[in-house]
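Case study 2.
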Amino acid sequence: MDQLYGKTLRSMQETLLRLEKCVPPPQRIPYLDHFVYRYVEKTLHQALIQKLARVVTGIQAATILLEYGFVQEQGVLQRTLDELREDIAFLAFSASDPGAAGLQKEYLDAFYQEDFEDPKDPTGTLNKRQMVSRHKIQGYLSRIEGAAIDPSTLVANAKAVSKTYSGFVHAASPHIMDMYGGEPPGFHLEGMLGTPVIEDYRQDLWNYYFRGITSFAMAAKVFGDADLYKKIRQYSDDFARESGMDQAVQRPTKS
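Prediction:
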C-alpha cells in the first residue's frame, strides 16, 4: 500500500503542476520590508490550484502521522481534508452554475481577503473574514451531487462526519481519552502504534487518498482538460482495484 500511496502522491503533484500552467502565476507583492506571493487576479481557477496544493500536503502529513501512531492529529488533518474536498467540489460545480454566482463571489471574496488592511498595524486593522458557512456549502453540494438522494440526508451525513472530526480539532474529552489505555493505563504520549485503533485509522486514510484523486478529477474538468479528466478517472478505478478496496462504499472489502 505504501508504494501505491507514493505513486498516487506523485501523480497528484504532477497534475497540480500541469494545472498551474493554465493560470497566471503568483506575483511578488510588497509586504513590510520584504514581499509575499499572491494571485493578483483572484480567480476561481487559482483558488482551485491553492486548495489542491493543500490536499497534497494534507494527505502526506496525515500519512506521516499515521506512520508514527499520532492518530489524534491525523483526525485533525482529516477534518481539514473533508472541508477541502467540499470546497473544491463547490468551486467545481459552481463554475458552470449561473445560479450559484452570488454564493461563489461571496466565497472567493472571503478566500482572498487579507488578514490586515495595514500589516504595520495588525491589531488596529484586523479584517474579519466573512466565510461562507459550511452549512451553505454542504447544502449546495447536496442539491448538486445528490440529485437522486434526499438532500437533507446528505447534509445530515456531512454534519455527522464533521462533528466527529471536530472532536479532534477542539480536543474534546471523549477523543482525548482514546489516547488512554495500556497496562498500567496511561496516556499514549508518543503515538499509538501497537494499539487496536491503528488499523481503523489506516483503513480510514484510504478514503482520503481516494477522495483526493476525485478532487483532482473535478478540477481537471473545470479546467477543460478532457484528456486529463479521463486519465484521472481511470486512475481512480486502478487505485481502488490495486488497493483491494470497494470503490462504491470506500471501505475495505471483506475477505
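The two ends are 17 Å apart (CA to CA).
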